[in-house]
Specification:
448 residues; alpha+beta; 7-stranded mixed sheet; 6-stranded mixed sheet; 11 helices
Length: 448
């Protein structure tokens, strides 16, 4: 169990769910690691009444809002107005004392508020000044999101704060810089701040927006109706204001001869973490988990151990939580979990699949087959698309993922959910297809 003595700071705990039994010669060990942060004292209270904080109370934080101001935001004209209103609503949700700025994004990035290469400090006066500055936002120009992120990074770096966060809104494709330029910007910003990304309307590229959120450990979603932007921005800012511990990493130690096959987040969304490992000492590596408030997330850890005989047992992996510090030091959050391997000749024990492992294996497959099915549909390969999306319907039904099942039903006609028998709809609304693709990685937790 985690122990963080400072008041108003979440306490972290780690729980491990696995079937540790392997048959003779068995090598693959799977475990679901649940990380929970509790006791921060903000979610559901101060977050919904941000001005109850005094300046300096709560975690120090900085937020930059990046608003698409490209020419397409003028079609229809209400879109730009909705974006201004949504940004204003998010600013109203800022806690007193939080540093913030607004960036207008086209083929270049421009400081909208406060200007001068710095951040404002949230209070009644600065919120009003920001609202006035937003009224001057107008649409015109292209889209180069990497420049927006670069400016946000420079602004956030100017504040000595614990939590750095970005919120990015776009309505179009990133047509005025190369994919390599965007990737370079994301690589430069990774680990420096987290970022939630939203696509408004239906003219943006899903993989671009989800890729931004994934690289910067944030959330991605579609807001098909611009009139709903204000509510979405308010929720995003409330969540951002609830973050209290930044830069948490899952540290995985494995013994000699053991290989890490993968580490992935499996709830509340599927997110591959394997390639983000940074070495942290002999046989240990850190996987970034981003910022935390009062919340719980699940991770699937798979390791390959050396084969052993009946009756042998070993520690296959040790999981802990740390916050890397300057100079190579770490702050240990006190939470730890052990993954074990025990070889047995009990066939029932060694062939049983842990319910959590089975559930999340299915959820990860669900996300994968939705993406594959939609890609095949776009390519005109209808038989393959039908098979993949049918499997998705089957998995969503079996796991109780009702939200994903509803989204799938807008793309396919479900004949029999249990067997995954479906027919592709002849006509699908673009917003429905994009919503399914954007939210395909959202999972449900194991039924108790």
């Amino acid at each position: 169990m985690a122990i963080l003595s400072k008041s108003n700071v979440p306490q972290f705990s780690v729980d491990v769910y696995q079937n540790e039994y392997l048959p003779e010669g068995g090598r693959e060990v799977n475990a679901i690691v649940t990380v929970t942060a509790t006791g921060g004292g903000t979610i559901g209270s101060a977050v919904t009444a941000p001005h109850l904080f005094s300046p300096g109370e709560g975690p120090s934080a900085a937020v930059v809002l990046m608003v698409d101001c490209s020419g397409s935001m003028d079609y229809p004209p209400t879109k730009m107005r909705n974006a201004r209103d949504a940004t204003a609503a998010a600013i109203d949700t800022l806690r007193d004392g939080v540093h913030f700025a607004v960036v207008g994004g086209t083929h270049v990035a421009k400081e909208v508020y406060p200007g001068g290469g710095g951040l404002a400090v949230a209070g009644d006066a600065t919120r009003e000044e920001a609202r006035q500055a937003l009224r001057k936002l107008s649409a015109g120009g292209g889209t180069a999101i990497g420049t927006w992120l670069g400016l946000a990074d420079r602004l956030l770096a100017s504040a000595d704060v614990a939590i750095r966060h970005g919120i990015l809104l776009t309505d179009g494709r990133n047509e005025h810089e190369s994919p390599e330029d965007l990737r370079a910007a994301l690589d430069a910003c990774a680990g420096r701040f987290t970022c939630d990304a939203r696509g408004v309307g239906t003219d943006w590229e899903v993989k671009e927006v989800t890729g931004i959120a994934s690289a910067l450990l944030g959330t991605a979603d579609i807001v098909a109706d611009p009139a709903r932007l204000a509510a979405d921005f308010t929720r995003m800012m409330e969540t951002a204001m609830g973050k209290e511990v930044a830069d948490v990493s899952l540290r995985l130690w494995t013994p000699v001869g053991t290989t890490v096959r993968f580490v992935k987040q499996v709830a509340p969304t599927v997110e591959e973490l394997t390639g983000r490992r940074s070495e942290s000492g002999p046989r240990a590596g850190d996987y970034p988990l981003g910022s935390w408030g009062d919340e719980s997330r699940d991770y699937h850890v798979c390791v390959e151990v050396p084969p052993a005989g009946i009756g042998r047992e070993m520690l296959a992996a040790r999981v802990s939580l740390v916050i890397p510090q300057p100079g190579g030091e770490v702050r240990n959050l006190g939470a730890q979990g052990l993954v074990r391997a025990v070889w047995t000749d009990d066939m029932a024990a060694s062939t049983s699949i842990n319910p959590q492992v089975a559930h999340y294996t299915g959820q990860a497959e669900l996300a994968e087959v939705i993406q594959e099915g939609l890609d095949l549909r776009k390519e005109g390969k209808m038989d393959g698309a039908t098979a993949k999306l049918g499997r998705a319907v089957q998995l969503a039904s079996a796991s109780g993922n009702a939200d994903t099942a509803k989204l799938l039903a807008k793309v396919v006609d479900v004949v029999d959910a249990a067997t995954g028998t479906v027919r592709l709809k002849a006509k699908v609304e673009e917003a429905d297809e994009m919503t399914l693709e954007t939210r395909s990685t959202k999972t449900v937790r194991v039924k108790k």
